[in-house]
Amino acid sequence: MGIGFVLARFTRLEYKALSECRTRYDSRIRLIGTAQSRPLAVCRDRGHAVNLALSVALALSDAGSRQSNRAMKLTNEKNQTNAFGWPGIEPRWTHGGKDGVGTAYAASSRIWFTLWNGIVTEVYYPTVDRPQLRDLQYLITDGKSFFHEEKRNLESKLEHLLDQRVGYRYTNSDPAGHYAIVKEIITDPHLACVLQHTKLTGDESFVSKLRLYALCAPHLEVGGRGNNGYVARVAGRTVLVAERKGTWLALAATIPFSHVSCGYVGSSDGWTDLAGNFQMDWEFDKAPDGNIALTGELDLTGTREFTLGLAFGNSQHHAVSTLFQSLSTPFTEHCKRYAEQWARSSVCILPLEQASGDGGNLYHTSFNLLRAHEDKSFPGAFIASLSIPWGEAVGDEDQGGYHLVWTRDMVNSANAMLAAGDCTTPLRALIYLNVSQRENGGFAQNFWIDGEPYWRGVQLDEVAFPILLAWRLQGEKALQDFDPYPMVLRAAAYLVRHGPMTPQERWEEVSGYSPSTLASNIAALICAACFARERDDEATATYLEEYADFLECHVESWTVTTEGTLLPGVTRHYLRILPERADNHTPAEDPNQGDIAIANRAPGARSVFPAKQVVDAGFLELVRHGVRRADDPIIVDSLKVVDAVLKVDTPFGPCWRRYNHDGYGQRDDGGPFVGWGRGRAWPLLTGERGHYELAAGHDAKPFVRAMESLASPTGLLPEQAWDGPDQPHVYMYCGKPTGSAMPLMWAHAEYIKLLRSVHDGKVSDLIADVAKRYLGDRANLRLFEVWKFTRQVRSVKRGYVLRIQAQASFRLHWSGDEWQTVKDTSSSNTTLGVDFVDIPILAAQQAPIRFTFFWTTSNSWEGRDYLVSVP
To answer: Which of 508, 556, 693, 862 is catalytic?
Structure first.
């Protein structure tokens, strides 16, 4: 057992605490594998524990590896030295709230970077859903008296490097004012390499004594475990490389490394090495199969200005070749081409900055961020965010993060770009969705960009949204030669077969009848009917419209309680959702009854509440799409309840929580969400409210300004903003980002669409055909009740049409007078894989409708009777 076994039990934070304590030099120990003796660090709080750990380590060292002090060895030489402390501490990702994200616009540069707190964090390669790096930062010491790491010890200032807002300049300053590190960060315009132009500045007498180290933590192939680190010598240059599952990383600079090492995080890595005595004592050539870090000291003898490159490839040769190619071109040339690419991409967007309150800053940032989240190998694939929410608390067990495709988020992104005047990119998105559609017409809850599902849930709004995107593109005459109708028809058929109850609503937690899901489904079915009618398929068009009518005439009876207690004087309002089990084929459908189980509640906290006491603002989607008027009395009353229960007045403007009792968010003490927390305010909901206010004839500009103020200084909108009292010790301030995802593309999309709506004076997402049908003359609309095997409705009202449908041809054997008379009615078929029989329920009807099925294809009877009462 080696010393690393014991040292690995101490976390980075513990080592950091030790390094910040006073160090006594009255006793010295020699660590196995080091180049020289090191002082024993003793701290008032942890001194005894560390002394004990080191004593045990020394006692155990005879059984461990006896690595001698020797010069740096290279991967192409024999007798390489291996780092101790395998496999390193448990790996984690980094903070989910980013300061910036960037990529070149060119498709050949298949790499994306993220920034947080002064450093480069997750880097994605070769696709936008594959993070390959935890972080890359500098360590600074004078070799004698202090040790700094950028992200913890320096004061960071970030600004845009380019007008296009996807290149950045960090100025990381010593709090004492002795020195600063200025970093300009972009990617190679054509290759998979992150470039970080670095300049060390400050008082010459102080800076001349500094030593600068690059510390790189690979998390290759979406994981911190099992990484392999090496020191390589290629073409006379020393390069740090890492590999996992065939993906390689290479790190070097335009100046050489004077010392290099590979180590296990928390045991033998460069941070741990330098934190002890401010010297780089360990120089290990290999650190195989663990959570590793690569460390290289930059040789500053000739210059303090250089470019650090981090390249990737599918072999060591590929990664190093890419690295050398990128470093051979002056950074100024790269920067010029990088800016030119992005400038060309935005030349034709609409001047929506006229509707903004910040001169278009957030508008242009949002537009370029949306484009930066598109993959370059799978054109049209847009992920939700280049982030891993609360990544500092997330390890290899959660590979998804938000770097996945959700069709809801993706279609919102595409619609935002369409609102900004870009018709080409949304078409790519639609084509990608067309290919990603499942054989049954549905879409996975979320998926990797190659179409492989990640979570396996089903959300009916995510099936509806691609239909809405197709309809909008057709309205803009932007479909070119692409025909979306087969996709539209399959998706519409899925909604008919599997609705109206959704297995999950837009918050991805509960099954049942959701106002927001119903709004999207109704709108999508009307749009699909438009497609069918344009192809002279009147029968399909009529069927889809009538199924939409069935959903529309049940919205209130499914999702409005008449026994509300949340706001005195308001008893009638929309629910968040009427919960029903997806496998319950005879649901009660009573919004005054039933309980809802809230996810992510704290241990021991109440998690089940009456459904009528849990609300969100999802019903506003009914107004957005044209299903209900903005002045509908129930909508107005529901907003009063939402504002009383969910509204947060931040210093930057109003914001709203998702729903009451939400547990998905930062904990009350400012700690990260780990299984439970408290749902915070979502800026995208400020945008949704702005759309409603515009539809109601009110001024929406205050909501535009609120979203602009809720953005970070670099124009990134968070998923959630802190809504509690300021807690400076954990950097939580009211209205400022929490540790969840930032930037969230759904929020940026909502902002752009709100700008377009304000610019035009009307809601950009309003669907004219839906509004015409449900907000205009309704005299010709029939009322429907639908019975199907997955929803065996218990009763039907007089004046309705009872539609009995199944997914096979049948003859309905039925009676409306207790079998005194019997009728046999053959089903009508559709192009959607659904057959149906309609039974009008007259005003005089008293007896229930009894029926059974004769299946014509198999020439067999169902074998049981069914009943629908007429109360």
So the answer is: 508
